[in-house]
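Input for the complex:
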Amino acid sequence: MADATTPTITRRNPFANEGFWLAMLGLGSFLLLWYAAVKWTPIQAFNRLPDPLTVVREWLSPTPSYGISIFTADYYVHILYSTYRALAAFTLAILLGVPLGIFMGWKRSVHQYAYSLFSLLRPVPPLAWVPIAILLFPGVEPAVIFVTFLVAFFAMTMNTYVGVKAIPEDYFRASACLGGTNTDILWDVIIPGAMPSIFTGLQIAMGAAWFSLAAGEMIAAQYGLGFLIWESYNLIQYPTIIIGMATLGLVGYLSSAAVRMVGNRLMAWREQRLGTGG
Amino acid sequence: MRDMLDLNSAAAAGKPAAAGKVSIRNVSKIYDPEGARVVALDNFSVDFAPGDFLAIVGPSGCGKSTLLNILAGFDTLTSGEVYLDDKLLASVDRPLAPGPDRVVVFQQGALFPWKTVLDNVTYGLMKQGRTPRAEAEARGIEMLKASGGLDRIAKSFPSQLSSGMQRRVEIIRALINDPKVLLLDEPFRAMDTVNKVTMHRHLLDIFRISQKTIMFITHDLEEALFLADRVIVMTTRPGTVKLDIKVDLPRPRTREMMASDAYIALKERTVMAVREEAQKAFERGEKEMA
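Predicted:
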Protein backbone atom coordinates (compact mmCIF):
# COMPACT_ATOMS: atom_id res chain seq x y z
CA MET A 1 0.00 0.00 0.00
CA ALA A 2 2.88 2.27 0.76
CA ASP A 3 4.18 1.71 -2.77
CA ALA A 4 1.13 3.28 -4.32
CA THR A 5 1.65 6.54 -2.49
CA THR A 6 5.43 6.89 -2.42
CA PRO A 7 5.78 8.69 -5.77
CA THR A 8 3.70 11.56 -4.42
CA ILE A 9 5.50 11.95 -1.11
CA THR A 10 9.09 11.91 -2.37
CA ARG A 11 8.76 15.44 -3.69
CA ARG A 12 10.56 17.01 -0.73
CA ASN A 13 13.88 18.81 -0.67
CA PRO A 14 16.06 16.52 -2.81
CA PHE A 15 19.30 17.57 -1.10
CA ALA A 16 18.13 16.32 2.27
CA ASN A 17 17.62 12.93 0.72
CA GLU A 18 20.22 10.20 1.04
CA GLY A 19 18.92 8.64 -2.20
CA PHE A 20 19.78 11.80 -4.10
CA TRP A 21 23.41 11.73 -2.97
CA LEU A 22 23.71 8.04 -3.77
CA ALA A 23 22.38 8.76 -7.27
CA MET A 24 24.93 11.56 -7.64
CA LEU A 25 27.65 9.20 -6.45
CA GLY A 26 26.57 6.63 -9.06
CA LEU A 27 26.64 9.21 -11.82
CA GLY A 28 29.97 10.64 -10.65
CA SER A 29 31.71 7.30 -10.49
CA PHE A 30 30.43 6.45 -13.96
CA LEU A 31 31.93 9.65 -15.35
CA LEU A 32 35.18 9.03 -13.52
CA LEU A 33 35.38 5.47 -14.82
CA TRP A 34 34.71 6.72 -18.31
CA TYR A 35 37.38 9.38 -18.03
CA ALA A 36 39.86 6.88 -16.62
CA ALA A 37 39.13 4.31 -19.33
CA VAL A 38 39.72 6.84 -22.11
CA LYS A 39 42.66 8.70 -20.64
CA TRP A 40 44.56 6.35 -18.41
CA THR A 41 44.21 2.82 -19.79
CA PRO A 42 46.41 1.43 -22.56
CA ILE A 43 43.36 -0.14 -24.26
CA GLN A 44 43.05 1.26 -27.78
CA ALA A 45 39.33 0.64 -28.14
CA PHE A 46 38.74 2.94 -25.19
CA ASN A 47 41.29 5.57 -26.20
CA ARG A 48 39.40 6.15 -29.46
CA LEU A 49 36.35 7.45 -27.57
CA PRO A 50 36.03 11.05 -26.49
CA ASP A 51 36.36 11.60 -22.74
CA PRO A 52 33.53 13.25 -20.80
CA LEU A 53 35.29 16.59 -20.49
CA THR A 54 35.79 16.88 -24.24
CA VAL A 55 32.12 16.04 -24.75
CA VAL A 56 30.91 18.61 -22.25
CA ARG A 57 33.22 21.25 -23.65
CA GLU A 58 31.93 20.55 -27.17
CA TRP A 59 28.32 20.47 -25.96
CA LEU A 60 28.59 23.86 -24.25
CA SER A 61 30.84 25.52 -26.79
CA PRO A 62 29.56 28.56 -28.71
CA THR A 63 31.87 27.48 -31.55
CA PRO A 64 31.75 23.66 -31.56
CA SER A 65 34.44 21.85 -33.56
CA TYR A 66 31.90 19.49 -35.13
CA GLY A 67 29.01 21.87 -35.58
CA ILE A 68 26.61 20.74 -32.85
CA SER A 69 26.26 22.34 -29.41
CA ILE A 70 23.61 24.04 -27.34
CA PHE A 71 24.44 27.26 -29.20
CA THR A 72 23.70 25.95 -32.68
CA ALA A 73 20.26 26.01 -34.24
CA ASP A 74 20.78 22.58 -35.79
CA TYR A 75 20.92 20.99 -32.36
CA TYR A 76 17.37 22.09 -31.66
CA VAL A 77 16.16 21.12 -35.11
CA HIS A 78 17.37 17.58 -34.38
CA ILE A 79 15.60 17.60 -31.02
CA LEU A 80 12.41 18.99 -32.51
CA TYR A 81 12.34 16.41 -35.30
CA SER A 82 12.89 13.58 -32.86
CA THR A 83 10.33 14.92 -30.43
CA TYR A 84 7.78 15.29 -33.19
CA ARG A 85 8.36 11.70 -34.36
CA ALA A 86 8.30 10.26 -30.83
CA LEU A 87 5.12 12.14 -30.00
CA ALA A 88 3.43 11.17 -33.26
CA ALA A 89 4.31 7.51 -32.64
CA PHE A 90 3.24 7.78 -29.02
CA THR A 91 -0.10 9.35 -29.94
CA LEU A 92 -0.75 6.69 -32.57
CA ALA A 93 0.16 4.00 -30.05
CA ILE A 94 -2.43 5.37 -27.63
CA LEU A 95 -5.13 5.82 -30.24
CA LEU A 96 -4.76 2.26 -31.53
CA GLY A 97 -3.40 0.43 -28.49
CA VAL A 98 -5.89 1.52 -25.86
CA PRO A 99 -9.04 0.54 -27.79
CA LEU A 100 -7.47 -2.75 -28.89
CA GLY A 101 -6.38 -3.55 -25.35
CA ILE A 102 -9.81 -2.70 -23.98
CA PHE A 103 -11.60 -4.95 -26.42
CA MET A 104 -9.10 -7.75 -25.94
CA GLY A 105 -9.71 -7.58 -22.20
CA TRP A 106 -13.46 -7.16 -22.43
CA LYS A 107 -14.54 -9.41 -25.27
CA ARG A 108 -13.29 -12.95 -25.30
CA SER A 109 -13.64 -13.26 -29.08
CA VAL A 110 -11.40 -10.26 -29.76
CA HIS A 111 -8.86 -11.73 -27.38
CA GLN A 112 -8.85 -15.07 -29.15
CA TYR A 113 -8.70 -13.37 -32.50
CA ALA A 114 -5.79 -11.07 -31.76
CA TYR A 115 -3.73 -12.53 -28.95
CA SER A 116 -1.62 -15.18 -30.68
CA LEU A 117 -0.81 -12.91 -33.59
CA PHE A 118 0.09 -10.29 -31.09
CA SER A 119 2.32 -12.60 -29.06
CA LEU A 120 4.25 -13.56 -32.21
CA LEU A 121 4.84 -10.01 -33.37
CA ARG A 122 5.65 -8.50 -30.00
CA PRO A 123 9.18 -9.94 -29.51
CA VAL A 124 10.39 -8.68 -32.92
CA PRO A 125 12.74 -5.76 -32.14
CA PRO A 126 12.21 -2.38 -33.82
CA LEU A 127 15.47 -2.63 -35.75
CA ALA A 128 14.18 -5.76 -37.49
CA TRP A 129 11.18 -3.80 -38.80
CA VAL A 130 13.30 -1.22 -40.58
CA PRO A 131 13.49 -2.96 -43.99
CA ILE A 132 9.76 -3.71 -43.99
CA ALA A 133 9.02 -0.14 -42.98
CA ILE A 134 11.06 1.19 -45.91
CA LEU A 135 9.31 -1.16 -48.32
CA LEU A 136 5.89 -0.48 -46.88
CA PHE A 137 5.85 3.31 -46.74
CA PRO A 138 6.34 5.75 -49.58
CA GLY A 139 8.09 8.48 -47.60
CA VAL A 140 10.76 8.63 -44.96
CA GLU A 141 8.64 10.20 -42.22
CA PRO A 142 5.90 7.54 -42.12
CA ALA A 143 8.53 4.78 -42.12
CA VAL A 144 10.42 6.33 -39.20
CA ILE A 145 7.23 6.89 -37.26
CA PHE A 146 6.08 3.34 -37.96
CA VAL A 147 9.27 1.83 -36.52
CA THR A 148 9.07 4.16 -33.52
CA PHE A 149 5.41 3.35 -33.01
CA LEU A 150 5.56 -0.46 -32.89
CA VAL A 151 7.02 -1.17 -29.45
CA ALA A 152 5.02 1.67 -27.92
CA PHE A 153 1.88 0.22 -29.46
CA PHE A 154 2.55 -3.26 -28.09
CA ALA A 155 3.26 -1.86 -24.64
CA MET A 156 0.10 0.22 -24.73
CA THR A 157 -2.08 -2.67 -25.85
CA MET A 158 -0.67 -5.16 -23.36
CA ASN A 159 -0.93 -2.81 -20.39
CA THR A 160 -4.48 -1.83 -21.24
CA TYR A 161 -5.41 -5.48 -21.70
CA VAL A 162 -3.90 -6.50 -18.36
CA GLY A 163 -5.60 -3.52 -16.70
CA VAL A 164 -9.04 -4.53 -17.97
CA LYS A 165 -8.46 -8.15 -16.98
CA ALA A 166 -7.62 -7.10 -13.43
CA ILE A 167 -10.94 -5.32 -12.84
CA PRO A 168 -13.05 -7.37 -10.41
CA GLU A 169 -16.05 -8.98 -12.07
CA ASP A 170 -18.32 -7.46 -9.39
CA TYR A 171 -17.84 -3.93 -10.75
CA PHE A 172 -19.23 -5.02 -14.12
CA ARG A 173 -22.11 -6.72 -12.35
CA ALA A 174 -22.79 -3.77 -10.07
CA SER A 175 -23.02 -1.42 -13.03
CA ALA A 176 -25.31 -3.80 -14.90
CA CYS A 177 -27.68 -4.35 -12.00
CA LEU A 178 -27.95 -0.62 -11.31
CA GLY A 179 -29.12 -0.12 -14.89
CA GLY A 180 -25.83 0.49 -16.69
CA THR A 181 -25.68 -0.38 -20.39
CA ASN A 182 -22.63 -1.74 -22.20
CA THR A 183 -21.61 1.82 -23.03
CA ASP A 184 -21.94 2.79 -19.37
CA ILE A 185 -19.81 -0.19 -18.37
CA LEU A 186 -17.16 0.92 -20.84
CA TRP A 187 -17.00 4.47 -19.45
CA ASP A 188 -17.76 3.86 -15.78
CA VAL A 189 -16.02 0.56 -15.13
CA ILE A 190 -13.54 -0.44 -17.80
CA ILE A 191 -11.80 2.84 -18.55
CA PRO A 192 -11.40 4.09 -14.96
CA GLY A 193 -10.68 0.55 -13.75
CA ALA A 194 -7.93 0.02 -16.29
CA MET A 195 -6.60 3.57 -15.92
CA PRO A 196 -3.75 2.80 -13.47
CA SER A 197 -2.47 0.12 -15.82
CA ILE A 198 -3.02 2.34 -18.86
CA PHE A 199 -0.86 5.01 -17.25
CA THR A 200 1.88 2.50 -16.56
CA GLY A 201 1.52 1.64 -20.24
CA LEU A 202 1.85 5.29 -21.21
CA GLN A 203 5.13 5.59 -19.31
CA ILE A 204 6.50 2.41 -20.86
CA ALA A 205 5.26 3.45 -24.30
CA MET A 206 6.87 6.86 -23.97
CA GLY A 207 10.17 5.21 -23.09
CA ALA A 208 9.74 2.65 -25.86
CA ALA A 209 9.06 5.33 -28.44
CA TRP A 210 12.30 7.08 -27.55
CA PHE A 211 14.45 3.99 -27.64
CA SER A 212 12.93 2.78 -30.90
CA LEU A 213 13.48 6.20 -32.37
CA ALA A 214 17.21 5.71 -32.81
CA ALA A 215 16.50 2.63 -34.92
CA GLY A 216 13.84 4.45 -36.92
CA GLU A 217 15.97 7.46 -37.59
CA MET A 218 18.64 5.37 -39.27
CA ILE A 219 16.26 5.66 -42.22
CA ALA A 220 15.97 9.39 -41.79
CA ALA A 221 17.69 11.50 -44.37
CA GLN A 222 18.45 14.75 -42.62
CA TYR A 223 17.36 15.37 -39.07
CA GLY A 224 16.69 13.72 -35.74
CA LEU A 225 18.88 12.67 -32.82
CA GLY A 226 19.12 9.08 -34.08
CA PHE A 227 20.19 10.40 -37.44
CA LEU A 228 22.70 12.72 -35.76
CA ILE A 229 24.27 9.78 -33.93
CA TRP A 230 24.71 7.71 -37.10
CA GLU A 231 25.80 10.62 -39.18
CA SER A 232 28.43 11.63 -36.61
CA TYR A 233 29.70 8.06 -36.58
CA ASN A 234 30.08 8.08 -40.34
CA LEU A 235 31.81 11.46 -40.22
CA ILE A 236 34.06 10.44 -37.33
CA GLN A 237 32.67 13.22 -35.12
CA TYR A 238 32.78 11.19 -31.95
CA PRO A 239 31.91 13.83 -29.32
CA THR A 240 28.73 14.59 -31.24
CA ILE A 241 27.69 10.92 -30.94
CA ILE A 242 27.76 11.24 -27.19
CA ILE A 243 25.92 14.56 -27.30
CA GLY A 244 23.18 12.87 -29.36
CA MET A 245 22.97 9.91 -27.00
CA ALA A 246 22.87 12.03 -23.86
CA THR A 247 20.22 14.29 -25.36
CA LEU A 248 18.11 11.26 -26.31
CA GLY A 249 18.34 9.96 -22.76
CA LEU A 250 17.49 13.33 -21.28
CA VAL A 251 14.50 14.10 -23.49
CA GLY A 252 13.20 10.54 -23.09
CA TYR A 253 13.46 10.78 -19.32
CA LEU A 254 11.73 14.17 -19.21
CA SER A 255 8.81 13.00 -21.33
CA SER A 256 8.30 9.88 -19.20
CA ALA A 257 8.35 12.06 -16.09
CA ALA A 258 5.74 14.35 -17.63
CA VAL A 259 3.47 11.38 -18.32
CA ARG A 260 3.90 10.16 -14.76
CA MET A 261 2.98 13.57 -13.37
CA VAL A 262 -0.20 13.80 -15.42
CA GLY A 263 -1.11 10.28 -14.32
CA ASN A 264 -0.74 11.04 -10.62
CA ARG A 265 -2.83 14.15 -11.04
CA LEU A 266 -5.65 12.36 -12.82
CA MET A 267 -5.95 9.43 -10.48
CA ALA A 268 -6.61 11.27 -7.26
CA TRP A 269 -8.87 8.45 -6.07
CA ARG A 270 -5.89 6.16 -6.07
CA GLU A 271 -3.73 8.29 -3.83
CA GLN A 272 -6.01 7.62 -0.93
CA ARG A 273 -5.41 4.41 0.93
CA LEU A 274 -5.46 1.96 -1.91
CA GLY A 275 -6.06 -1.71 -1.41
CA THR A 276 -8.46 -1.46 1.49
CA GLY A 277 -11.51 -2.09 -0.64
CA GLY A 278 -11.93 -5.64 0.68
CA MET B 1 -32.70 3.52 14.96
CA ARG B 2 -33.36 7.15 15.70
CA ASP B 3 -33.09 9.27 12.63
CA MET B 4 -34.04 6.46 10.31
CA LEU B 5 -37.59 7.64 9.79
CA ASP B 6 -36.38 10.08 7.16
CA LEU B 7 -35.12 7.15 5.18
CA ASN B 8 -38.69 6.05 4.76
CA SER B 9 -39.78 9.17 2.96
CA ALA B 10 -36.54 9.22 1.02
CA ALA B 11 -36.96 5.68 -0.25
CA ALA B 12 -40.65 6.09 -0.95
CA ALA B 13 -40.16 9.34 -2.81
CA GLY B 14 -39.90 7.40 -6.07
CA LYS B 15 -43.10 5.44 -6.18
CA PRO B 16 -45.41 3.55 -3.83
CA ALA B 17 -43.83 0.54 -2.19
CA ALA B 18 -43.23 -1.97 -4.97
CA ALA B 19 -44.46 -5.50 -4.39
CA GLY B 20 -41.54 -7.90 -4.56
CA LYS B 21 -43.08 -11.34 -4.54
CA VAL B 22 -40.50 -13.84 -5.71
CA SER B 23 -41.25 -17.35 -6.81
CA ILE B 24 -38.47 -19.75 -7.68
CA ARG B 25 -39.86 -22.92 -9.23
CA ASN B 26 -37.91 -26.13 -9.81
CA VAL B 27 -34.75 -24.30 -10.71
CA SER B 28 -31.74 -26.40 -11.61
CA LYS B 29 -28.32 -25.29 -12.64
CA ILE B 30 -25.80 -27.65 -14.17
CA TYR B 31 -22.36 -26.35 -15.03
CA ASP B 32 -20.67 -27.99 -17.97
CA PRO B 33 -23.58 -30.32 -18.86
CA GLU B 34 -21.59 -32.04 -21.65
CA GLY B 35 -18.50 -32.66 -19.58
CA ALA B 36 -17.98 -32.69 -15.84
CA ARG B 37 -21.71 -32.08 -15.15
CA VAL B 38 -21.50 -30.21 -11.89
CA VAL B 39 -25.03 -29.91 -10.49
CA ALA B 40 -25.04 -26.71 -8.47
CA LEU B 41 -28.80 -26.47 -7.93
CA ASP B 42 -31.18 -29.36 -8.15
CA ASN B 43 -34.89 -28.69 -8.47
CA PHE B 44 -34.83 -25.80 -6.05
CA SER B 45 -38.16 -24.19 -5.22
CA VAL B 46 -39.06 -21.43 -2.82
CA ASP B 47 -41.69 -18.70 -2.69
CA PHE B 48 -41.34 -15.52 -0.79
CA ALA B 49 -43.95 -12.91 -0.10
CA PRO B 50 -43.49 -9.17 -0.54
CA GLY B 51 -41.57 -7.76 2.39
CA ASP B 52 -40.13 -11.10 3.45
CA PHE B 53 -36.63 -11.24 4.86
CA LEU B 54 -35.39 -14.57 3.61
CA ALA B 55 -32.03 -15.94 4.65
CA ILE B 56 -30.40 -18.78 2.79
CA VAL B 57 -27.86 -20.74 4.77
CA GLY B 58 -25.61 -23.47 3.55
CA PRO B 59 -22.03 -24.65 3.47
CA SER B 60 -19.57 -23.21 0.98
CA GLY B 61 -20.27 -24.46 -2.49
CA CYS B 62 -23.88 -25.44 -1.86
CA GLY B 63 -25.11 -23.33 -4.74
CA LYS B 64 -26.49 -20.44 -2.69
CA SER B 65 -24.47 -17.92 -4.64
CA THR B 66 -25.57 -19.59 -7.86
CA LEU B 67 -29.14 -19.01 -6.80
CA LEU B 68 -28.46 -15.35 -6.15
CA ASN B 69 -26.63 -15.00 -9.44
CA ILE B 70 -29.58 -16.48 -11.32
CA LEU B 71 -31.97 -14.09 -9.63
CA ALA B 72 -29.68 -11.14 -10.26
CA GLY B 73 -29.31 -12.08 -13.91
CA PHE B 74 -25.58 -12.80 -13.75
CA ASP B 75 -26.06 -16.48 -14.53
CA THR B 76 -28.45 -18.60 -16.59
CA LEU B 77 -30.49 -21.53 -15.36
CA THR B 78 -30.62 -25.02 -16.82
CA SER B 79 -34.27 -25.70 -16.02
CA GLY B 80 -37.13 -24.21 -14.06
CA GLU B 81 -38.57 -20.71 -13.83
CA VAL B 82 -38.28 -17.60 -11.71
CA TYR B 83 -41.25 -15.27 -11.28
CA LEU B 84 -41.26 -11.77 -9.88
CA ASP B 85 -44.68 -10.41 -8.92
CA ASP B 86 -46.27 -13.25 -10.92
CA LYS B 87 -44.47 -12.23 -14.10
CA LEU B 88 -42.06 -14.70 -15.66
CA LEU B 89 -38.62 -13.30 -15.00
CA ALA B 90 -36.30 -16.07 -16.14
CA SER B 91 -36.50 -19.47 -17.74
CA VAL B 92 -34.30 -21.56 -19.98
CA ASP B 93 -35.57 -19.83 -23.10
CA ARG B 94 -35.59 -16.47 -21.44
CA PRO B 95 -32.24 -15.58 -20.02
CA LEU B 96 -32.47 -12.76 -17.59
CA ALA B 97 -30.52 -9.54 -17.72
CA PRO B 98 -29.46 -7.75 -14.54
CA GLY B 99 -31.69 -4.81 -13.68
CA PRO B 100 -32.43 -2.21 -11.01
CA ASP B 101 -35.49 -4.10 -9.76
CA ARG B 102 -33.12 -6.69 -8.20
CA VAL B 103 -30.03 -4.96 -6.89
CA VAL B 104 -27.14 -6.91 -5.40
CA VAL B 105 -24.88 -5.96 -2.50
CA PHE B 106 -21.68 -7.88 -3.06
CA GLN B 107 -19.61 -10.05 -0.75
CA GLN B 108 -16.35 -8.22 -1.42
CA GLY B 109 -18.02 -4.84 -1.76
CA ALA B 110 -18.34 -3.28 -5.18
CA LEU B 111 -18.51 0.46 -4.71
CA PHE B 112 -16.67 2.01 -7.63
CA PRO B 113 -13.37 3.12 -6.07
CA TRP B 114 -12.97 5.92 -8.64
CA LYS B 115 -16.31 7.54 -7.81
CA THR B 116 -17.15 9.53 -4.71
CA VAL B 117 -19.71 8.20 -2.25
CA LEU B 118 -22.39 10.48 -3.68
CA ASP B 119 -21.59 9.54 -7.28
CA ASN B 120 -21.79 5.90 -6.28
CA VAL B 121 -25.13 6.40 -4.57
CA THR B 122 -26.68 8.30 -7.47
CA TYR B 123 -25.22 5.95 -10.09
CA GLY B 124 -28.36 3.86 -10.53
CA LEU B 125 -30.72 6.84 -10.80
CA MET B 126 -28.45 8.52 -13.33
CA LYS B 127 -28.04 5.43 -15.47
CA GLN B 128 -31.73 4.65 -15.54
CA GLY B 129 -32.04 8.11 -17.01
CA ARG B 130 -35.30 9.13 -15.45
CA THR B 131 -33.94 11.46 -12.81
CA PRO B 132 -32.18 14.80 -13.39
CA ARG B 133 -28.78 15.03 -11.72
CA ALA B 134 -29.79 17.70 -9.22
CA GLU B 135 -32.74 15.66 -8.05
CA ALA B 136 -30.72 12.44 -7.88
CA GLU B 137 -28.06 14.17 -5.80
CA ALA B 138 -30.61 15.70 -3.48
CA ARG B 139 -32.12 12.28 -2.92
CA GLY B 140 -28.71 10.70 -2.47
CA ILE B 141 -27.77 13.26 0.17
CA GLU B 142 -31.12 12.81 1.87
CA MET B 143 -30.71 9.05 2.09
CA LEU B 144 -27.09 9.30 3.24
CA LYS B 145 -28.15 11.74 5.91
CA ALA B 146 -31.00 9.53 7.05
CA SER B 147 -28.62 6.62 7.42
CA GLY B 148 -26.82 7.94 10.47
CA GLY B 149 -25.49 11.17 8.98
CA LEU B 150 -23.45 9.63 6.18
CA ASP B 151 -23.97 12.79 4.11
CA ARG B 152 -20.80 14.15 5.74
CA ILE B 153 -18.76 11.65 3.71
CA ALA B 154 -20.60 12.29 0.43
CA LYS B 155 -17.48 13.69 -1.24
CA SER B 156 -15.11 11.00 0.05
CA PHE B 157 -13.80 8.15 -2.01
CA PRO B 158 -14.71 4.61 -0.85
CA SER B 159 -11.10 3.79 0.02
CA GLN B 160 -11.23 6.47 2.73
CA LEU B 161 -14.06 4.71 4.56
CA SER B 162 -14.09 1.79 6.96
CA SER B 163 -15.45 -1.45 5.54
CA GLY B 164 -18.60 -1.06 7.62
CA MET B 165 -19.28 2.38 6.18
CA GLN B 166 -18.53 1.12 2.69
CA ARG B 167 -21.14 -1.56 3.15
CA ARG B 168 -23.72 0.93 4.43
CA VAL B 169 -23.09 3.15 1.42
CA GLU B 170 -23.43 0.17 -0.88
CA ILE B 171 -26.78 -0.74 0.67
CA ILE B 172 -27.97 2.84 0.14
CA ARG B 173 -26.73 2.70 -3.45
CA ALA B 174 -28.99 -0.32 -3.93
CA LEU B 175 -31.96 1.01 -1.97
CA ILE B 176 -32.18 4.38 -3.72
CA ASN B 177 -33.36 2.58 -6.86
CA ASP B 178 -36.40 1.31 -5.00
CA PRO B 179 -35.74 -2.28 -6.06
CA LYS B 180 -38.36 -4.98 -5.66
CA VAL B 181 -35.84 -7.33 -4.13
CA LEU B 182 -32.59 -6.60 -2.38
CA LEU B 183 -30.06 -9.39 -2.90
CA LEU B 184 -27.37 -9.53 -0.25
CA ASP B 185 -24.51 -11.89 -0.97
CA GLU B 186 -22.79 -12.51 2.39
CA PRO B 187 -22.16 -8.80 2.70
CA PHE B 188 -20.71 -8.96 6.23
CA ARG B 189 -18.58 -12.03 5.75
CA ALA B 190 -15.20 -10.33 6.04
CA MET B 191 -16.13 -8.32 9.13
CA ASP B 192 -15.24 -8.79 12.77
CA THR B 193 -17.98 -9.43 15.33
CA VAL B 194 -18.30 -5.85 16.58
CA ASN B 195 -18.74 -4.47 13.08
CA LYS B 196 -21.14 -7.25 12.22
CA VAL B 197 -23.39 -6.42 15.16
CA THR B 198 -23.50 -2.76 14.10
CA MET B 199 -24.22 -3.72 10.52
CA HIS B 200 -27.02 -6.05 11.59
CA ARG B 201 -28.67 -3.19 13.45
CA HIS B 202 -28.40 -0.94 10.39
CA LEU B 203 -29.75 -3.60 8.09
CA LEU B 204 -32.71 -4.32 10.36
CA ASP B 205 -33.50 -0.60 10.51
CA ILE B 206 -33.40 -0.40 6.76
CA PHE B 207 -35.56 -3.48 6.45
CA ARG B 208 -38.13 -2.19 8.93
CA ILE B 209 -38.43 1.17 7.23
CA SER B 210 -38.13 0.29 3.57
CA GLN B 211 -40.28 -2.87 3.73
CA LYS B 212 -38.20 -4.42 0.97
CA THR B 213 -38.14 -8.07 0.10
CA ILE B 214 -34.65 -9.22 1.05
CA MET B 215 -32.77 -12.32 0.12
CA PHE B 216 -29.75 -12.69 2.34
CA ILE B 217 -27.12 -15.30 1.60
CA THR B 218 -24.90 -16.41 4.45
CA HIS B 219 -23.08 -19.38 5.88
CA ASP B 220 -23.61 -18.05 9.41
CA LEU B 221 -26.70 -19.63 10.94
CA GLU B 222 -26.91 -17.26 13.92
CA GLU B 223 -26.79 -14.26 11.65
CA ALA B 224 -29.58 -15.76 9.55
CA LEU B 225 -31.82 -16.52 12.54
CA PHE B 226 -31.25 -13.11 14.06
CA LEU B 227 -32.10 -11.20 10.88
CA ALA B 228 -34.64 -13.16 8.88
CA ASP B 229 -38.33 -14.01 8.89
CA ARG B 230 -37.53 -17.28 7.26
CA VAL B 231 -34.38 -19.34 7.07
CA ILE B 232 -33.77 -21.87 4.36
CA VAL B 233 -31.03 -24.36 4.99
CA MET B 234 -29.59 -25.74 1.79
CA THR B 235 -28.06 -29.14 1.27
CA THR B 236 -24.52 -29.34 0.03
CA ARG B 237 -24.16 -29.79 -3.72
CA PRO B 238 -26.45 -30.46 -5.51
CA GLY B 239 -28.24 -27.68 -3.67
CA THR B 240 -31.85 -28.19 -2.67
CA VAL B 241 -33.98 -27.13 0.28
CA LYS B 242 -33.12 -29.14 3.37
CA LEU B 243 -35.03 -27.14 5.95
CA ASP B 244 -37.45 -24.26 5.64
CA ILE B 245 -37.94 -22.59 9.00
CA LYS B 246 -40.13 -19.71 10.00
CA VAL B 247 -38.44 -17.45 12.53
CA ASP B 248 -41.27 -16.12 14.68
CA LEU B 249 -39.19 -13.91 16.93
CA PRO B 250 -40.88 -10.52 17.31
CA ARG B 251 -39.50 -7.40 15.66
CA PRO B 252 -37.67 -5.18 16.31
CA ARG B 253 -35.02 -7.77 17.03
CA THR B 254 -32.52 -7.16 19.79
CA ARG B 255 -29.32 -8.94 20.75
CA GLU B 256 -30.98 -10.03 24.00
CA MET B 257 -33.35 -12.21 22.01
CA MET B 258 -30.41 -14.42 21.18
CA ALA B 259 -30.61 -15.67 24.76
CA SER B 260 -34.37 -16.31 24.64
CA ASP B 261 -35.84 -19.79 24.76
CA ALA B 262 -37.56 -19.26 21.43
CA TYR B 263 -34.27 -18.41 19.73
CA ILE B 264 -32.46 -21.33 21.35
CA ALA B 265 -35.20 -23.71 20.31
CA LEU B 266 -34.95 -22.43 16.73
CA LYS B 267 -31.22 -22.80 16.77
CA GLU B 268 -31.43 -26.34 18.07
CA ARG B 269 -33.82 -27.24 15.28
CA THR B 270 -31.55 -25.91 12.59
CA VAL B 271 -28.04 -26.29 13.79
CA MET B 272 -27.90 -30.04 13.27
CA ALA B 273 -29.11 -29.69 9.69
CA VAL B 274 -26.44 -27.11 8.97
CA ARG B 275 -23.70 -29.16 10.62
CA GLU B 276 -24.70 -32.28 8.74
CA GLU B 277 -24.38 -30.54 5.41
CA ALA B 278 -21.17 -28.78 6.36
CA GLN B 279 -19.73 -32.12 7.41
CA LYS B 280 -20.75 -33.71 4.11
CA ALA B 281 -19.17 -30.87 2.20
CA PHE B 282 -16.03 -31.11 4.30
CA GLU B 283 -15.71 -34.85 3.78
CA ARG B 284 -16.01 -34.46 0.07
CA GLY B 285 -13.14 -32.03 0.37
CA GLU B 286 -14.83 -29.73 -2.01
CA LYS B 287 -13.21 -26.47 -2.75
CA GLU B 288 -15.45 -23.47 -2.68
CA MET B 289 -17.16 -22.93 -5.97
CA ALA B 290 -20.30 -21.26 -7.27
